[in-house]
Each structure stands twice: as structure tokens, then as C-alpha cells.
Design a protein that fits this description.
The protein folds into two domains: 204 residues, FAD/NAD(P)-binding domain (3-Layer(bba) Sandwich), CATH 3.50.50; 103 residues, FAD/NAD(P)-binding domain, CATH 3.50.50. The strands form four sheets. Strands 1, 2, 3, 4, 5, 6 and 17 form a seven-stranded mixed β-sheet that branches. Strand 4 and strand 5 form a beta hairpin. It is an alpha/beta fold. Bound molecules: flavin-adenine dinucleotide (FAD). This is YpdA family putative bacillithiol disulfide reductase.
């Protein structure tokens, strides 16, 4: 039987793995893709808003000549940390269920890329599955069309096209600035009444100036109601507008799935299925079942990010050590 299984090898799951290993456990990480998979899916040329030392895990130094690292540097860093720390990671093995046993242990069922099923027994389980697989859906007609995406990668495919961006936070603003470089005609539809306070402070003045110069059309207090292949219907304070449009980037954030958690008996509350756990130990109401990283966040997934979620592993290790004594 494994002492601890960690589900998910993002920055927070990996950090938990390192802390547990240093505390004398030998955790097994199960990762449905590869280490830091979510970051590999972020926009190709994305720059973090955090400085490198705030993205560090396990006290491994993150050295870069840049004030804020880029996606590629973060991927290199987390890959190297995974390799040097020698935590056990089984890549392309997805956890499909966590089943509590009568003796307080767990069975973690998995499926690998060859379609093989395995059942791992573990005394404790840490769920660190992140949120990036689950974009906040708009629930409007046309959202499923091929000209709509919730995952922006890079500008080139939108060269010279009319692009409607839904959202007003960093992802939306970064995408808008990027699209200007490929001569796209950009409309940002945002339900907020003013620029979001979350926008990176060094980006906001440039973005505002692009709006003021008319390079980006910014519609505040507005929502997209219907998407078609050639139009978007937008409700604005001035009334409903039918805009000619080619592509839609719905950059409205993410929310964690609580599938494992609720099936394993964790109390999840409200529309946003906020899980019940003790923030001092990260243990849920199911003894031996822990959370690490953004999966522990409530309604606002941005309340936990790498800077904050990287410390969860230490809390878990301390609690498990105390239980051993
Ligand atoms: C564009 C963008 C920019 C950001 N910039 C910053 C920043 O500057 N600073 C900062 O601190 N944060 C930033 N964040 C947020 C940060 O990236 C996330 O909060 C962080 O990745 C959370 O780490 P995690 O380990 O909890 O989850 P994730 O990184 O999402 O990792 C979860 C892992 O679990 C795996 N997984 C999921 N389900 C299963 C399963 N069933 N079985 C096995 N494995 C599974 C996934 O494949 C993934 O590898 C940014 C986010 C975005 C989208």
C-alpha cells in the first residue's frame, strides 16, 4: 500500500510531493498528462505576473534574467525540479475515482494512455487537480461552434480577422494586445463597468491607451448573448448590437471540478461546490483526504494560485507527520 498518493503534478501537486518526500514519505504522483501540463497549455508567449522567486517550489532556485518569467521558462523550471527532486511521477495515468475504504485507507482507480485500468491502495490521498480543464462556460447559443475557443494560444491564426474577446481580466487583455500585432480587429466585451483591478499594472496603461486610440473596441457593462459563425449579438447599455465577427475568444476563467471529492464523501457546498477542508492542515472532512493548490479555491479560482498554493504541501506533510507520531 502507498503511504500517500497525490493526484495531479502541477506546481502545487509537485510542491506537495517534494515536501512529503522531505518529511520522510515517498509519495506517488499520478498525472493524467505530464508535469506542469496546465502551464504547457497557457498562451505560447505568456509572461507570468509573479516574479520568479514567488513561483519557486521546494526551495529550488528559479533563475531567469527576466523580472517575470515566461511560460517556456516556467516549464523548464518545473521539469527540472521534478527531475532533481526525484519524486515518483506516473505520467499519462489519470485518476478516475477515489474510493474510501472501511479501514480509513483509499483505493485510487486510474486509467493510463493504453486504456489499462489500475487500482492503487493508499493510506492518504492529496487531490491537486487544478482547474484548467474546466473553463467557465457561458451557456449561450453558439458557444460550441468551431470559431469559439476558451483557450487562447497565439495570435497568428487570427491574422487580419475580426475577433470578439469575452472577459476583462489578464487573459482577455493579454490576448487583445497580442492580436493587435497581427492586425486583427478586436472587440472586448466585458460585463464589468470599468477596467478590472486585476490587470497587470504594467499592461493596463498600454491597454487603456489602445482603447482610447480606438485600436481596441471596449464594451463595458456588456454581455454576448448569441454567437454565430459570422456574428455576435451583444447586449450593451445602449441596446442590443449585432456585430460582424469571425472568431470568439471566451476568456472567462476556470473552475475546479469536484468530481472526485464529492464522490469520495467530501462536503461540497453551493453552486460553486466549495469543498469543506481545514485551511491549517488542508485535510477535508474525509480524514486522510487532502487538497493542494487551486482545487481548494472557492468561487473565485484566482484566490489560490502558485504563489499561495505552493505552501499547501508543507501543511499536509506536518499534519501527516503529527499523525505518525
Ligand atoms: C494565463 C495564466 C497566467 C497565470 N499566471 C500566474 C502567475 O503569474 N502567478 C501565479 O502564482 N499563478 C498564475 N496563474 C495561476 C496558476 O497557473 C494556477 O493557479 C496553478 O497552475 C495552479 O497549480 P495547481 O498545481 O493547483 O494546478 P494545475 O497547474 O492546473 O495542475 C493540475 C494538474 O493535475 C492534472 N490532473 C487533473 N486531473 C487529473 C486526474 N484526474 N488525474 C491525474 N492528473 C490530473 C493536470 O493534468 C495538471 O497537470 C496563471 C494562470 C493562467 C491561466
Amino acid at each position: 500500500m502507498e503511504e500517500v498518493i497525490i493526484i495531479g503534478a502541477g506546481p502545487c501537486g509537485l510542491s506537495a510531493g517534494i515536501e512529503l518526500k522531505r518529511a520522510g514519505f515517498d509519495p506517488l504522483l499520478l498525472e493524467k498528462h505530464v508535469v506542469a501540463h496546465s502551464i504547457s497549455q497557457y498562451p505560447t508567449y505568456m509572461q507570468f505576473f509573479s516574479s520568479p522567486e514567488l513561483l519557486e517550489i521546494g526551495d529550488y532556485p528559479f533563475s531567469t534574467p527576466n523580472d517575470k518569467p515566461y511560460r517556456l521558462e516556467a516549464l523548464t523550471y518545473y521539469r527540472n525540479v521534478a527531475q532533481h527532486s526525484q519524486v515518483r511521477i506516473r505520467s499519462y495515468e489519470e485518476a478516475t475515482a477515489v474510493i474510501p475504504q472501511a479501514d480509513g485507507s483509499f483505493i485510487v482507480e486510474t486509467l493510463n494512455r493504453l486504456g489499462e485500468k489500475t487500482a492503487h491502495a493508499a493510506r492518504s490521498v492529496v487531490v491537486a487537480t487544478g482547474y484548467f480543464d474546466h473553463p467557465n462556460l457561458l451557456g449561450i447559443p453558439g458557444e460550441e461552434l468551431p470559431n469559439v475557443t476558451h483557450f487562447y494560444r497565439e495570435a497568428h491564426p487570427y491574422t487580419g480577422m475580426r475577433v470578439c474577446i469575452i472577459g476583462g481580466n489578464n487573459s482577455a487583455v493579454d490576448a487583445a494586445m497580442d492580436l493587435l500585432k497581427v492586425n486583427a480587429s478586436v472587440t472586448v466585451v466585458y460585463r464589468g463597468s470599468d477596467y478590472s483591478p486585476n490587470i497587470k499594472p504594467w499592461v493596463r496603461p498600454i491597454f487603456e491607451s489602445m482603447v482610447n486610440k480606438g485600436r481596441v473596441r471596449m464594451l463595458f457593462n456588456s454581455t454576448v448573448e448569441v454567437i454565430s459563425l459570422g456574428h455576435v449579438r451583444v447586449r450593451t447599455p445602449e441596446g442590443v448590437q449585432e456585430l460582424e465577427n469571425d472568431f470568439v475568444l471566451a476568456l472567462t476563467g476556470f473552475r475546479s471540478s469536484r468530481r472526485f471529492l464529492s464522490a469520495a464523501g467530501v462536503t461540497v457546498e453551493g453552486d460553486w461546490e466549495i469543498p469543506k477542508f481545514d485551511p491549517a492542515t488542508m485535510e477535508t472532512n474525509v480524514p486522510g483526504l487532502y487538497l493542494a493548490g487551486v482545487v481548494a479555491a472557492g468561487r473565485d479560482a484566482n484566490e489560490i494560485f502558485i504563489e499561495t498554493g505552493r505552501s499547501h504541501g508543507k501543511l499536509i506533510a506536518a499534519h501527516l507527520l503529527a499523525g505518525r507520531a
